[in-house]
Amino acid sequence: MKTTLLNRSPIWFNCFIYFGILLLMALWVPELSEDPLLGRIKYTIFACILMVIPAVLTYLFRTIGPRIAYTSNVLWLFSFFLFLFHAYLTIFVYFGGIRESIDGQGDVIGILNMILTVWWILNIILLFTVGLMNRGIRFQHALLMLAIIVAFLFTVLRRTGSVFSFGVLVSIVLMTGIIVYFIVLRKSTPATIPRLS
Amino acid sequence: MQVNVDKYFAVLRKIRALAAILIALLLVLTFVYFKVSQNWVKSANLKGEEAFLKGAIGTEVMPLVVLDVLPDMFPENFQPAGVEAGDWIDQFGFIRDPKNEALPVGFTLSNRRPKSGAPSPVPFVALTCALCHSTEIQPVGTNETHFIIGPGNRSLNLFSWLDAFQASILDEEKLTLETLEGAYHEKHGRKYTLSEKLMTRLWLNGIRKSIGAGLPRFDEPFGHGKSRDPSIVAAGPTRTFPFRTIVRSALNRPGEKMAVYTKISTIYLQKNRRWAQVDGSINDIDLRSATAAFAAGATVQNLKIPEIANTVKEASKFTETLQGPPYAKLFPAQAALSDPDLVERGRQLYMTSCNSCHGHRTSDGLGWVNGARHGEIIPLEEIGTDPERVVFRHYERITAKLVELFQEPHPFPMAPENLRAPNEVEKRGYVAAPIETAYLRAPYLHNASVMTLAELINLQPRRTKFYRGRNAYDPENVGFISPAEPNEFVYFEFDTSLRGNSNKGHDYPWSYDDPDRDPAELKALLAYLKTL
C-alpha cells in the first residue's frame, strides 16, 4: 500500500505553518484599522480562500500521487479551521447569535451560509472517517469545493478595488489549474487517496 | 554528496519544526492578547444621570496623555484670545468641573479607541451627553453660577475648538510622538509608557490620515487664533453643525455650503415628545440620541458595542423624566415680585396664542398637557423662521442613508416609520413641541438667534447683532444679556442678517409692528412664561 509509506508529518507541518501565517495576518492586520472586528471577518475569509485554492488545486492533481492527495485533505482541513474563525466572528461576535446572523445577512444568504457551514462540518467528519474512496463522497467533496468558490467569487466579484482584484486573481489561478487538469491529468489513473486520520 | 543532502534536509526539518513552534507560540500569544485586551475595557454599566454625565457614547477623541499636553504645545490654537485670557476650557466655553481639574464637564475617560471602539490599554478622552446638554447660568450682576443639567451649553463653542484641535493635529513639524512625549515629560517628570507610546502613535497616524483625507473636500482648519472668528467657524457658542457632520460621514459629501447652525437643544421631559429634533424628524428617543452621538463622532460600528449602546439608551432614559429647576428656585427674589393677576392674564393669552403648539403645564405644576398641534411640522411659510435647517441640500437623502446604515440587528435600527423628512420643501418646517422650563431654553429659536423671551414674544425688538460666549443671564427679560462691545469671554458676533442666522418669524401673539400688539398683555405673557 502506497499510503503506509507516506510520511505524513511534513505535510501537517507545512500546512500548519501556512495556516498559522494566514491566521496571524488575518487577526493582526485589521488591528490597526478603523473597525478591527469587521476587518477580521473579512480577512479570515480571504485567508480561508487562500487556503482553499491550493486545497482545490492539489485535489485536482491528486492522481499524481498520495502525497498530493493527502496534502489536499490537510489543506482542506485547515481551510475549514479558518472558515470556523470567520463563522465564529460573524455569527457570534458580530451578529450575536445564529438567529441574529440569519436576520442580519438576510434570510436567503444567512440560511445558505448556515447550510454551507453544516455541510463543511459533515464533509470534514467524512474525511476523517471514510476518506474519499467512495465515488459519491468524492462527488460531494468536489461539489462543496465548487460551492465555496462560487459563493466567494459571487461576493467579491461584485465589489470594486482590491477586493475585486483578489477575486479576479483567484479566478485566474483556479481556471489555470482546471485547464491544466483537463489537458494533462484527466485520463491518468487515480492514486489511492488516504484518509485524514 | 549524499551526506550533504541529508544534512541539508535535516536543517530544513529543524527550521520547519522551529517555524511551526514559533507560529504556535504566536497564535497562543495572539489569543492571550485578545483575552487580556477585553479586560482593558472596564464595564461601567452606568445608569441614569451617571450615564448622561460620565458615559462614553462612542465619541473618543484622543488619548488622555495627549490632551494633557496638546493645548500647552499649541497656545496659538487653543488660546485664541491670548494666554492671559484663560486656558482652552475658558476660551471655548467648556464648563470647569470642580471635581476634576484636568477635564471639563462632558469629558470622560474610556479604554476604547476612537471610531472602532476596540479596547485600548491606555485611557482615551471621550465626550458625553453632558458636554452639550448642561450649562451654567450666571445671573446678571453676580459672580455666582448655577450648574444645570438639561439646557444646551450657553458658552460651548465646540466646532471652533475642533478647528483648533485639527489645526494642531496637522502640524507635522511641531506635533510628533517625540514632541508629545517631551512635553509630557516636562509636565509630569516621566516619559510615556510603552502602551502610551504605541497607542499615541497609532492614534496620531490614524487621525492625521483621516483629517488629511478630508482636506481636498473640506479644506484646512484655520487655528492660529482664528477658530473663534464667526467668519471662520460660523456656528459659535450654543450651536453646532450636526448635519454637516452627518452629510460628511454618511453621504461622503463636503457639506461646506450648508448654513445649518443648530442650537444645542434643551432635553427636558423627552417622554412628552412624539417627534424629536427641531424638524420633528425622529420619533424614537433612543434613535434621536444615537443620531446625536453619530453627529458627535460615534460610528455605526462602535454604537453596536453593547456597553456603548447601553450608555446611550440609559442617558436617553434619563432625559425622559429630566426636569429643570423652577424659575422661582433659581431667582427667588424676582419670583417673589410676581403678580398672580398678571400671571393669570398671561396664562389666558398663552392659551389662545401658544397652547395649540406648545401645550401647557398642569395646574398642580407637575405634569404637561400637549397642544392640539403637538408633533405637527409647522410649515416654513407659517412659522417664518430661518429656513436653512430644513432646506439644505441632501436633506431628504439623509433619512434614507440613516435607514441604510442603521439596520437590524443594530441596537439603533432606523426604520422608515421612525423617521420623516418630507421631500417637498413646502411641507418642511419646524415641529410643534412642548417648552417645559421655557426660561432655561435661551437663546431662542432653533438657530439661537433671539436672546430673550421678551424679544421672542415681541415685547421688545429683536436685536439684529449681539455677542455670544459666557453671557450673563437676565431673569427679568428671561434670557441672555449681550455686552455693547465684545470682550474676551463674550466674543462671538452674532449677525442675524447672515445666512442661517435669521431671527425673523415665530411672531406670536403679534409681530412687533402689528397695530394690535399690546405690550401690557405681552408683559403678562412673559410673567406666565416664567412659571412654565
Q: How is the secondary structure organized here?
A:
The complex is a heterodimer of chains A (about 200) and B (about 525).
Chain A: H1 2-5, H2 9-28, H3 36-60, H4 66-94, H5 98-105, H6 107-129, H7 135-156, H8 161-185
Chain B: H1 2-40, H2 48-54, E1 60-63, H3 64-67, H4 70-73, H5 75-78, H6 88-91, E2 107-112, E3 119-127, H7 129-132, E4 134-137, E5 146-149, H8 158-169, H9 177-188, H10 194-218, E6 239-240, H11 242-251, E7 262-263, H12 285-295, H13 306-321, H14 327-330, H15 332-336, H16 340-353, H17 355-358, E8 360-361, E9 368-369, E10 377-379, H18 380-383, H19 388-391, H20 395-405, E11 429-431, H21 453-456, E12 465-469, E13 473-474, E14 479-480, E15 490-495, H22 519-531
Task: Specify the overall morphology of chain A.
Answer: globular
Q: Main β-sheet of chain A: number of strands, strand sense, barrel status?
A: none
Summarize the amount of helix of chain A as a percent range: over 70%
Could you name the ranges of chain B where pLDDT drops below 50 across 5 or more consecutive residues? none
* Rg of chain B computed from alpha carbons, rounded to a whole number of angstroms: 26 Å
Quaternary arrangement of the chains shown? heterodimer
Instruction: State the separation between the terminal residues of chain A, measured CA to CA.
Output: 16 Å
Specify the number of helices of chain A: 8
How many helices of chain B? The count is 22
> Which structural category fits the helices and strands of chain B?
alpha+beta
Strand content of chain A: under 5%
**What form of chain B results from the Cα inertia axes?**
elongated
Low-confidence stretches of chain A: none
User: Total number of β-strand segments of chain A?
Assistant: 0
Roughly what is the average pLDDT of chain A, rounded to an integer? 86
Q: What's the main sheet of chain B like?
A: 3 strands, antiparallel
Write the H/E string of chain A, N to C. Answer: HHHHHHHH
End-to-end separation of chain B: 101 Å
Strand % of chain B is: 5-15%
